[in-house]
Design a protein that fits this description.
A hairpin with a 7-residue loop joins strand 2 and strand 3. The protein has a 4-stranded antiparallel β-sheet. Helix 1 crosses helix 2. It is built from 4 helices and 4 strands, in the order E-E-E-H-E-H-H-H. Helix content is 38%, strand content 21%. The protein folds into 2 domains: 90 residues, Double Stranded RNA Binding Domain; 39 residues, no CATH class.
């Protein structure tokens, strides 16, 4: 799913503050124009991903021509593009199916102990990757 949203960029002493008007509370900053666009894309993608994972439809984007960046001096209106499929694949919490092969004797022993294979694999991967949760 590809989405685009207008953004408002406001120059400040350290770079730009960025507001995504259609996504309530979605505000970020960047040290320069390119960084501000990158940060806005990331913040908006996370905002939309949260909505999608909660089963809600993301807000419809406003027409960029209807957005006014006159809240602060020198405001700029621009547009960002979100690739939600790529973002969800990289950062989403949605479970993905993995097929793995183990020896039959190990499967039998684990089933006798009522081991949850998904939980065991997640635990082993997190330990291997030194991820604490």
């Amino acid at each position: 799913m590809k989405l685009s949203y207008p953004i408002c960029l406001y120059p400040n002493d350290t770079g730009y503050t960025v507001v995504v008007p259609d996504l309530a509370g979605c505000i970020t900053e960047g040290k320069d124009f390119s960084d501000a666009i990158y940060m806005a894309t990331d913040a908006a993608s996370l905002w939309v991903l949260d909505e999608l994972e909660e089963g809600r439809t993301p807000p419809k984007a406003s027409e960029p021509s209807k957005i006014k960046a006159d809240e602060y001096p020198n405001g700029i209106v621009s547009v960002i593009m979100l690739d939600m499929d790529a973002y969800a694949e990289k950062y989403g919490k949605k479970a993905v199916r993995k097929n793995c092969t183990i020896p039959a004797w190990l499967n039998t022993a684990a089933e006798k102990q009522h081991i949850n294979f998904s939980a065991a694999l997640q635990s082993a991967l997190m330990e291997q990757l030194n991820i604490n949760q």
